[in-house]
Amino acid sequence: MLHRYPTTLLALLLVQALQAFTPMPDANLRTWVNNNYPGAIVGSNIDETHPGVQSATYIDLQFAGNISDLMGMQAFSSLGTLNVSGNPITYFMGPQSLHTLIANNCGLTGTFIVPLPVQTMMVSYNSSTTLDLSVAQQLNTLYAHHNQLTNIIGSNGSVGSMDLSYNQLTTIPDNFQSLYSLDISHNLFATLPGHFGPLNMVNASYNLITSFTFLPEFSVDLSHNLIDHVTSLGSTQTVNLSFNPLTQGMDNTSYDLVTLTITDTQLPCLPYLHNALVNLYCTNSPLTCLPNQPPNLVMSAVNFGFPPAVCTSIDPCYQQLPSIALRVFLQGPFNTATLDMHDSLRAQGLLPTVEPYTALGFSYTGAGWPDTLDPAVFNATGSDAIVDWIVVDMAVDNGVLNPGDAEHYSRPALLQRDGDVVALDGSWPLPLAMRFGSYRTAVRHRNHLGAIVRFGENFGSATSAVDFTLYTATACFSEAMHGDSLLFNERQLWSGDVTWNRQIKYVGVSNDRDPILQAIGGIQPLNVVSGVYSNADVNMDGQIKYTGFNNDRDPILVNIGGWTPLAVRNQIGFY
Q1: For residue 512, is it within any domain?
Q2: Closest CA to 142 of 106, 91, 178, 171
Q3: Structure confidence by residue, pLDDT tens digits, 535-567
């Protein structure tokens, strides 16, 4: 007998055949699903084929009715974000599509294992003691603050941001190679963890930190710790060291530091402040003055806690200017027998009491110089007798990756017979009112070719030494100075640049021979002009002579080669 089923019964059987059921044992979860997706619950199962279940991408179960078991949530095959906060969750389950899981305030204890597919995990305000990241290889963002964490298990190269604040951590794994933001404030760290990847920001406030060897690139908050001494701030741009002892001070700051906060410390003195610094906050500290003033620093008594002022030389926090123990010989007055220079211009009272280089068209750069001319300095005789004025020119060392705060700086100085370069008041070493950084030292003279060191060095509060007179002491460019060899160790600046145009020429346009002839009248080569301070006086004996013994023309020919009048000797290494 052929049985014929009613049309409605056939349709029902067909629908049941097409349905796929997933067990959902938690009755509270089934109730919530049935209320939000009517018809999705069949008995104690959830229908995976239900249109609402298939299309759901965001589910918010916050305080949804004491849900404890998420078994069955894998039926939501398109689900991206699941919020189960405020439920006593004991079992986590979700689809492979899940990328964000929020489980704040769920009463979690013991070890919490971050699920496999999750990229963003929020599991704050719980009581977990261990966080296991070993299977969460796609995890990018982790919020686990306000727990009782003492241990982090596993790590991976994908985590970029972690908030582990308000826990009991003393250490975390150090191989988060993609980590750029880390909050470990309100924990029990004694040292700042490091050796991460491109870390930009760290909040490590309210810990027990006493020292650190690594800082992030952009910002670090180390306030409310136990730091007593800071050796380096690396290249960090924003640093907060407030509420630390700092009784042993800070050795230096960062060249990149923009904002420094050191309120409520016992810091005795500030270190040198570099150019990038804009904001300084140091109220409730024993500081009374600044070591120096960066060009863009906000000068505010409200920010400082004292009237804005740079420390004077009598203040214990005074920061010494860079200085240089500099020596150089000039070929014109150099005596090859005594290996020093004569001081004929000084002896004849011909040295000007005002530096001569401004009148020659030279423009000084930088903040000037702290000393003024003491006329008594011209009374010295012997090895300390003054030979002439020179220019000390400090060029930024562009040969290094980071020249620091270096800015082109130049100043006049006085040259003694023994080659020492002294300040205008005769003091030595020579003070340089320039910013700390890497410089290449150069010297200029009004009728000699200048010279510059080949390799720069870092100038700070300590005195640097540069000796142009010795081939073995200071490296210059080849042929930049006379006597530049191991066989003749008393080098001198080349004489004969009468026009002071950075080259020595015997013939042709702008040569250095014609000005000598013109200085003595331009017609009679035997004429001699005496008692003058002039660039045409190449040997600097107070006389201008074109011919005869000790004339000023022959050194020019000798210094370009001596037999090829058309040759030219140029200043080497700088302009």
Answers
A1: yes
A2: 178
A3: 999 999 999 999 999 999 999 999 999 888 999
